[in-house]
Amino acid sequence: EKGRDNAQFFTSDMTNIATQKFGFEKEIKESLALEQFFLVYQPKVLKEKHRIIGLEALIRWQHPTKGMISPAEFIPIAEESNLIIHIDEWVLNQTFIQLQAWQDEGRTLVPIAVNISGRHLVSDGLVTYIAKKMDFYGIEGRWLELEITEGVFLHDIERCIEVMAQLKALGIKISIDDFGTGYSSLSYLKRLPLDTLKIDQSFVGECAEHTEDTKICETIIHLAQSLKLRIVAEGVETAPQADMLMSLGCYIFQGYHFYKPMLAKDTALLLTKDHVV
Ligand code: C2E
Ligand code: CA
Ligand code: CA
Ligand code: CA
């Protein structure tokens, strides 16, 4: 309708986006080496504030000129290529370094959960990489947990079962992240060697107000109970949300109402016998 000029503009715009994305990928790769990335840790809390039963490692990118870039911005781009494997490995290595440091300081350890992309889970290198790092840093598998979203089960369930069995053999725990937003069928859930389901924060937000979301939380909790899986609610921001979830049978929480993600040095202060079960 608008003639040739417009088509021209569209084309150059598309090229522009592609170049930008390529530039972004290159920049992420370089930044990993330049130590512009760091991890923060968000506690998982059992029932009341003071009993921390685990941590989740979350990546942060402090860009020299653009400031803090959210993982919600760069992880989806990284997931389109093998770049996500570089990032996952960087996060795993960093997590092992942290566990070793806390272990050496004589702190009471809790498992640290790392987010792993589906692409990486079904790739060849994950189990070998983790086994090598456990050995190198002298860390037992029970201190590592992997959080995986449901999407990957759809693509290659047999491969997922195989890899997860190898991870379990190393003592590593496995959670399904953002549960309820993906496509898990009940038969998949039964076959996967899982430990935990994490209720997605989109259902937690309005769960205290007797909405459809309350029923979804209840259904997910019952499902976890019948499959003998642990259940964790993420994104818990208020006391009424925690109370509602407890009345539905969920006792492990993660969210701003308890703790925000924090730096390693602040997290370390929580790893004492009083705080940990
Ligand atoms: P996720 O794994 O579902 O992580 C939970 C996100 O919710 C985190 O955002 C966390 O900071 C945020 N959050 C925690 N408590 C609350 C709360 O009470 N209210 C609200 N509104 N949000 C809360 P973050 O750190 O920005 O990470 C976003 C997503 O990026 C993560 O979602 C995860 O999918 C991905 N991600 C983060 N770090 C990594 C990583 O190291 N590797 C990979 N592969 N993905 C990561
Ligand atoms: Ca997660
Ligand atoms: Ca999540
Ligand atoms: Ca998420």
UniProtKB/TrEMBL annotation:
<comment type="similarity">
    <text>Belongs to the ammonia transporter channel (TC 1.A.11.2) family.</text>
</comment>
<feature type="domain" description="EAL">
    <location>
        <begin position="21"/>
        <end position="275"/>
    </location>
</feature>
<protein>
    <recommendedName>
        <fullName>cyclic-guanylate-specific phosphodiesterase</fullName>
    </recommendedName>
</protein>
